[in-house]
Amino acid sequence: MYEWNEMVQRMIDWVEEDLAASPTLLEMSEQLGYSPYYCTRQFHVLTGMTLRDYVWQRRIGRAALELRDTDTRILDIAVKFGFSSQEAFSRAFLRAFRLTPHAYRKAPQPIPLAIRAEVFSPYHYLIRERDRMRQVHLQEAEIKLELIPAHKFIGIRDIGSNNYGGFWKNGHDCDEVSGTLESMSHYTLPGQLGQTAGWFYQDGRKGYLYGILVAADYDGAVPEGMECWDIQESEYLVFFHPPFDYLQDNGQVMQIVEEVAWNYDPAVMGYVWDEEDKQDYQRHFPEGYGYAVLRPVRKLD
């Protein structure tokens, strides 16, 4: 039923393995056993763009990060990512981000980078595997304390949403928001993963948030459509599951962690929840970090 989700994801994976020299449409179609026309048609149906446009957007985005993070010559970056000349690269960069590579290198600013497409999810995996019996023992959530220093949170708070799916369905463009935050990844507060979701509390209501943690003294640009909040230093109870297979175990791992996180009594560790003017955070990096829910606490008086 979702055969093409998996095959288009394989095409995406092949492209991402080496953006500078990704396989041709003909080579990918031969691997998949379908005509180039049918492969590119299905790619467009599932991603909303042509394969050519996807490769172009990902290359120009990765080139932007190299401009930001390295001293490599602009010409060398252009050649590395498949542009015929520095002039061609500059024209493409200007079209994508409305500034030149030189101007961006001199003064990096938030720009909407294209993010990696994901069209084959745990849901599709479970549908494909529904007739196969699989038994796996997932460990219980670990509970530990972590001190997060005072910081600023740049992103979006939505009081009309209380979960990840609802947040993106409530008028926020996932690609644009995530891509813009990716261009700010070099400002990430040390010790944090990067883009972070979570929850906040306002007038007794619980909303959902998405953004990035940066240093308390950050005084740079705040992307259009986002805001910046000061968050006090706090200890957090971290409810954590180590790395796991995203496709096979994501739903179960999130359920295990959140069941403990939302029902735990911090008094057994000498703490109380301290969420009134702070935020809960949600870390989700299955293969590299795992999954965690962080809730701020303070010591009992």
Report on the architecture of this protein.
- By secondary structure, this protein is α+β, with helices and mostly antiparallel strands.
- A hairpin with a 4-residue loop joins strand 8 (280-285) and strand 9 (290-299).
- 39% of the residues lie in helices and 22% in strands.
- The model has no long low-confidence stretch (mean pLDDT 90).
List keywords for this structure.
transcription, 9 strands, single chain, globular, nine-stranded antiparallel sheet, DNA-binding, transcription regulation, 11 helices, 22% strand, alpha+beta, 301 residues
How widely separated are the two ends? 57 Å
Low-pLDDT segments = none
Backbone structural class: alpha+beta
Helix content: 25-40%
In N-to-C order, the SSE pattern is: HHHHHHHHEEHHEEEEHEEE
**Helical segment tally?**
11
How many distinct beta strands? Answer: 9
Provide the β-strand percentage band: 15-25%
Shape category = globular
Gyration radius over CA: 22 Å
Largest sheet descriptor: 9 strands, antiparallel
Quaternary class = single chain
Overall pLDDT metric: 90
SSE blueprint:
Layout: H1 3-17, H2 25-32, H3 36-47, H4 51-69, H5 74-80, H6 86-97, H7 101-106, H8 122-128, E1 142-148, E2 151-158, H9 164-169, H10 174-182, E3 195-202, E4 205-215, E5 227-231, E6 234-241, H11 246-261, E7 271-273, E8 280-285, E9 290-299
Antiparallel strand pairs: 1-6, 2-4, 2-5, 3-4, 3-8, 6-9, 7-9, 8-9
